[in-house]
Amino acid sequence: MAVDNPGVEPFGPAMMDGSSGINDSLHTRVLAMLGIPLGEFFDFDALAGDCEGDGRWEFLFTSAPLTIPGGVGSPPNALAIK
C-alpha cells in the first residue's frame, strides 16, 4: 500500500484522544496482521509530469522494502514501469 499522505499513520485522530485501541488502526491491521508493507509520503509529482508528457497513464508501481531482521522501517525502493 503506497500513499502520498499520512493516511496510514499508526496513531490517527481517534487514537490520539484515547477512545480507541491500537488494534483499531489501519496501520496495525494492514502491516502487522496481514504483513502488507506500507509506503507513506511518496512524491508522485515527477511521475505525474512524465505521464502527462507522453500521454501514457498506465504503469506498474512497485516498492520492495529491504529485509532487515527486527527492523521497523526501510528506505523505499520505488519503481514505476511504463
**Numbering strands along the chain, what is their spatial order in the largest sheet?**
1-2
Over all CA atoms, what is the radius of gyration? 16 Å
DSSP, total strands: 2
How many helices? The count is: 3
Low-pLDDT sequence parts: none
Write the layout of secondary structure elements.
Layout (H helix, E strand, L loop, with lengths): L12 H4 L9 H8 L11 H10 L5 E4 L14 E4 L1
In short:
The protein has helices at residues 13-16, 26-33, 45-54, and strands at residues 60-63, 78-81.
Give a written overview of the molecule:
The protein is of the alpha+beta class. It has one domain (13-81). Helices cover 27% and strands 10% of the residues. It has 3 helices and 2 strands; from the N terminus they run H-H-H-E-E. It has helices at residues 13-16, 26-33, 45-54; strands at residues 60-63, 78-81. The chain has a two-stranded antiparallel sheet.
Characteristic terms for this protein:
single chain; 82 residues; alpha+beta; two-stranded antiparallel ribbon; 27% helix; elongated
